[in-house]
Amino acid sequence: MTEPALLVDLEICRRCPECVVDCDYFYHPYNNGITKLREQGTWEEICRRCKEANCIESCPQDALQKAPGTERVERASMLCIRCRTCTIACPFGTMDRDILAFKHSGCDLCRPRLQPGDKPVCVESCPYDALDYAEFEEDPEADIHSVKPGFLVHAVNWKEDK
After folding, report:
1. Tens of pLDDT along 86-138?
2. What is the per-residue DSSP string for the chain?
3. Cβ atoms of 56 and 64 closer than 8 Å
4. What would the pLDDT profile of 36-67 be if each residue is shown by its tens digit?
5. Residue 25's pLDDT is what?
6. Given pLDDT bands bounded at 50, 70 and 90, which one contains residue 1?
7. All domains of the chain, ordered by start, with CATH?
8. pTM value?
9. Which residues, 6+ apart, have CB-to-CB distance to 19 below 8 Å?
C-alpha cells in the first residue's frame, strides 16, 4: 500500500490568475508553501533544459542555475529580484510568470500535522480543484510524474525528439 501524496495539477495551476490557497506551514504561516512546490514541479516536468539556457544568461542577479548533476533550472529565491528577464528570455513559456515571490517558501507536505484521512489545508482551500491528497503512483501515460517522495504533479511533459 502506498502512502498518501500531494498531487498538484500544473495544467490547472498555469491557468490560475494567482494561487489563493491557504497554507499552515508552521515556519512561514503567511507565505504559501505550495508556490515552491509549483515551481519545482514546473521546472522538473515542463522545462526543456536548453543547452544554452537563455533564462540563466539573462538573469542580472545570477539567481538561476542548472542543478548539479541535472539540466533542471533552479532559482536562488533570495537573489531573485523579480525583474522577469527570465520570463522574456524563455522561448518556450516555461517561465511564463514569476511563481515564487522574493521570500522563502517552504512546504513540509503537512506530514507532521496530518492524521489518517485528513487532507492538507491547501487541498481543502483550492477553489479550482488543482490539488489533491490521496494515494497516487507515478503514471507517465496519464502525465502524472513524481517530483519527490510525497509530491507528484500532473503536467504534460515536454518530450524531446530524438
Report:
1. 888 988 877 755 555 545 567 888 877 888 889 998 999 999 999 999 999 99
2. -PPEEEEEEHHHHTT-SS-------TT-TTS-THHHHHHHHHHHHT----SS-HHHHH-TT--EEEPTTS--EEE-TTT-----HHHHH-TTSTTSS--S-SS-----TTTTTPPTT---HHHHH-TT--EEEEE---BGGGTEEEEETTEEEE--------
3. yes
4. 787 777 777 777 788 888 999 999 999 899 88
5. 73
6. low
7. 4-154 (3.30.70.20)
8. 0.70
9. 13, 32, 34, 35, 38
Place of cell 522574456: 88
Residues whose CB falls within 8 Å of the CB of residue 155, separated by 6 or more in sequence, listed in order: 10, 11, 41, 42, 45, 46, 143, 145
Dist CA 19 CA 130 (whole Å)? 10
